[in-house]
Amino acid sequence: MRQHYPHNIILKVKSNVAVAGTSLSGFCTGALLGAGASLYFTGTECTKVVYTSSSSGSTGYPRESYSTATIVRSIISLDWSGISSVASFQFPLPDQLPSSLYRKDGNGSYCCVSYQLQLQLGGREIVEVVPIQIISKPLCNPTPSPYVEDHVRRRIMLACCIPKGSIETSIKVNDTRLRIGEVMKICLELVNNSSVDIKWISCQLFEQIDWHSCEHHTSDTTIVASQKVSGLKGMKFKATKQAKAKAVSPINSDHKSNNVISCEAFLRVPDFTLQTCTGNLFEIKHYLSINAQTKCGLTNVNVKVPVQITSPRRSMTTIYDYLIATEDRG
Q1: Cβ count within 10 A of residue 306
Q2: C-alpha 306: how far from its chain's center?
Q3: C-alpha distances out from residue 315 to 181, 322, 326, Å
């Protein structure tokens, strides 16, 4: 919310939500000209990391580390061409601003990116502050970035040392560069040349935020979209009798056998997903995880595919819904 100070000063903006690369506009009123009014746009990264410190012979106890980094601090020109007590402004926002965010983990650590307008009098006293929500600039017609993996053999081991054969994977992802609301299509084929059964297959989209303060680091990882694969064909989850009867060392794939699993999955990027980006104190990463689950004690097939989530392709009338979703999630 806007913070007021005991001065006859009003600072108003046309909208408290803006996209990087567009403009902020508004006006301020009051006894400004004679007071040496200055208007600034500021952006700041703030992090807190809770860590455990211990000395020799003593138990650990929690400590906190804080860090701050400046993203932007720009003075905004005030237009006094009209009434002397009213000054208008229009400020072009830099293109590369990261989106506003606030994320915390379960340990009391947090990561924050915030922006605000600050009205100062006499070059020192801040008399009015207006928070601004920033959405990072959308990519203009981004080039699709598909992912293809053909016939990659993955060994299956019992207790990390006893070979049980192999599972061969072929994966096609239509695009790994997505906007919020878009759908990722995953085509998957598994050839089970092991002596173990596959219990189930899942596709999950993960969001990971890493941040640090001084030499201390922490992270928070969440699943933003998930689907257990359906529509299996062929022998589905079962290993072939031939594979169980043979020696379990890796063998050549036989694509004409009945131990082939073919399926598709579709993951929609939800509205609350943050954008992939890197700041001074934090990094937001996304990746697709494809997992074929075997029995306990056996190797699972797990494939990680990096994904880039860009800004939402939305009009300004729907960006408010996006901000509400991200604030509710934090």
Answers
A1: 12
A2: 12
A3: 13, 11, 17
Q: What is the DSSP letter of 99?
A: P
Tokens of 62: 């929690």
The burial class, CB within 10 Å (0-12 / 13-18 / 19+), for 66 is exposed
Residue 28 makes CB contacts below 8 A (sequence gap 6+) with: 9, 10, 11, 12, 37, 39, 78, 86, 87, 89, 119, 128
Cα–Cα distance list, 166 to 183, 201, 249, 252, 271 (Å): 31, 16, 8, 9, 38
Of 194, 191, 192, 196, the closest CA to residue 165 belongs to 194
- Residue corresponding to tokens 């689950």: 293
Residue with tokens 């100070």: 5
Q: Where are the beta strands (DSSP E) in the chain?
A: 3-4, 10-13, 17-19, 23-29, 37-53, 61-76, 86-92, 101-104, 110-121, 125-135, 147-158, 162-173, 177-178, 183-194, 200-213, 216-228, 260-268, 277-278, 282-293, 301-309
Q: Give the side-chain half-sphere CA count within 13 A for 3.
A: 11
Query: CB of 119 within 8 A of CB of 11?
Result: yes
Answer whether residue 149 shows pLDDT above 80: yes
Percent of the chain with pLDDT over 90: 43
Res 166: pLDDT = 81
